[in-house]
User: Fold 4-aminobutyrate aminotransferase from Thyridium curvatum.
Amino acid sequence: MSARPTSEPAGPSVKTEFPGPETKKHLEKIHEVFDSRNAFLVCDYTKSFGNYLVDTDGNTLLDVYSQIASIPLGYNNPALIKTASSEEMLDALVNRPTLGAFPSHNWSEVISTGILRVAPKGLDKVFTAMAGSDANELAFKAAFMYRRQHERGGPHVEFTDEEIESCMNNQLPGSPQLSILSFRNSFHGRLFGSLSCTRSKAIHKLDIPAFDWPQATFPQLKYPLEEHEAENAAAEQASLDEVEHLIKTWRLPPVAVIVEPIQAEGGDNHASPAFFQKLRALTKKHNVLLIADEVQTGVGSTGKFWAHEHWNLPADSPPDMVTFAKKAQTAGYYYGNPELRPNKAWRQFNTWMGDPARAILFRGIIDEIERLDLVNQTARVGKYLFGKLEVLAKKYPQDITNLRGKDRGTFIAFDSPKRDAFIKKSKDMGVNMGGCGVNGVRLRPMLIFEEKHADILIDRLEKIINAI
Assistant:
């Protein structure tokens, strides 16, 4: 096996068109046994390092998409290689436990020294999962069971025979007519429950049966924010009014509201801290749970470990649940209220209930984030990058519009009237980036992204603008 690189290249290097000849060969082989139509690149991870991704044609790209916002510390990170090579990891991989029924002797230690070490304030418990969609669906289940426990009179009240019998036929009262409220342009996953809350692209939802669940309008802010304060405040209040109306009148009563701190897939849509503070107050007023979906925004990319920290909620009023995945390399939801744990065993259960190997990796990620102070670095570099983008937007006002993400670390996006051509040309210029919404170009650098990488990115962005 060839030695893996130990340092980053000096910069991007493009040798072929995209896709290159070797990539095409690999895609043909992959497609014989696996659907490769979604593939952007065929990567050679043995040659990739840090912020740079190498494909099978030897093209070296500055990766400011980090797969899909899911790589926190870059490729072939030495600290994570050390974590992955440990005896503890070997045991977790070879003897993977079914955590709900046969947990490993060190599972509580793995959780407490890793996942719970970075738990959002006020949320000291966790239920681990396999992926972001899974985490959201498990949070939905917790919300439904919590609501029914309260309606029934408390967790100590037993189920009736009618409830037990009717649920097996998907009928009332055992299968209650309740809902989860989400927002237009949201993305919460592609499983059945999460897909009913996903509203960003039709291709995700076509032909799939869906629940009759409500959606509210997420505020559509105008940029620059400081020039549209009154309009944006009105848009946020209209959204809140719609949420309250739906909570009070929807035919299937909502038990929870799920919201992304920044709508990512749906276009990098932002709202102010005041909006989220009022949303939290509104959900409390109506005894509806608030789920913060931090699958994409979590783990440092906004300049805080959790993006909802920007909301500045009162200490006694955090979100009821916070879901996580992607950069954590594991998944699940945090919660604080012990009543969100079901009243009986086997109600929130599956074979794996998470993966200790991935939880160990997340602990290694946390160690490295803390050692290198990467959350603060991301906040600093994000301000630097945003300032450079503001200059570029003024120089090319027709090509970079609605620049957004100020003071949100490197979680930055802008609109381009030629978005698809922009994304395609970016690879020719040695940059891997992604789109969102209709016209959005989103930047999702890794936490190890520095000012020198920002300078390279700005240079390549200008070249892309002049080439399309």
